[in-house]
């Protein structure tokens, strides 16, 4: 999956673990032949995306675009799940705010974005509990603790 992770920032970022944690999560969720893109951006770019596609003029940490919801994006051999955009700047800020490592936050945001691609959401309290529990389960089994 590493071939589908794109760093558009000026920072040197090791993305190898991102690929590993996403494959682990897909295996855990029994997703066969997943294909997705992860684009690492800065705060300026994610704010532009958030404004254009969600009508929210603010920086966010991760935005997912699910392709399985689009009827004409269909492949026989793979599940093309979609694209995840992660703000690496926001990732580092949140790691500091929450008192854990950038590694943990980066992997968390990738898993969070993947779950959005698969239809999970956190718009209400019950859905949020389900999504958070699954995120923690995946990260703990991958051995990324808080």
Task: Describe the protein.
This protein is α/β, with parallel strands linked by helices and 146 residues long. The protein has a single domain (2-141), classed as Collagenase (Catalytic Domain) (3-Layer(aba) Sandwich). It has five helices and four strands. It has helices at residues 16-28, 43-54, 88-98, 102-117, 125-141; strands at residues 5-7, 34-41, 62-66, 79-87. The protein has a four-stranded mixed sheet with strand order 1-2-4-3. β1, α1 and β2 form a beta-alpha-beta unit. The radius of gyration is 15 Å and the shape is globular.
Concise summary:
The chain has 146 residues and is of the alpha/beta class.
Blueprint of the fold:
Blueprint: E1 5-7, H1 16-28, E2 34-41, H2 43-54, E3 62-66, E4 79-87, H3 88-98, H4 102-117, H5 125-141
Parallel strand pairs: 1-2, 2-4
Antiparallel strand pairs: 3-4
Helix pairs in contact: 1-4, 3-4, 4-5
CATH architecture: 3-Layer(aba) Sandwich
Main sheet properties: 4 strands, mixed
CATH superfamily: Metalloproteases ("zincins"), catalytic domain
Q: What's the pLDDT, averaged over the residues? A: 91
Offer a few descriptive terms.
146 residues; Collagenase (Catalytic Domain); alpha/beta; 4 strands; four-stranded mixed sheet; globular
């Amino acid at each position: 999956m590493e071939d589908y992770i794109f760093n558009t920032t000026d920072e040197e970022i090791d993305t190898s673990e991102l690929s590993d944690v996403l494959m682990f999560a897909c295996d855990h969720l029994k997703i066969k032949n997943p294909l997705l893109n992860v684009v690492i951006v800065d705060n300026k770019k994610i704010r532009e995306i958030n404004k254009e596609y969600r009508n929210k003029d603010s920086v966010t940490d991760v935005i997912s675009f699910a392709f399985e919801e689009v009827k004409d994006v269909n492949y026989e051999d793979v599940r093309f799940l979609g694209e995840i955009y992660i703000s690496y700047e926001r990732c580092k800020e949140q790691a500091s705010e929450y008192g854990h490592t950038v590694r943990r936050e980066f992997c968390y945001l990738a898993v969070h974005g993947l779950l959005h691609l698969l239809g999970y959401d956190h718009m209400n309290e019950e859905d949020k509990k389900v999504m958070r529990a699954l995120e923690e389960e995946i990260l703990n089994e991958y051995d990324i603790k808080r």
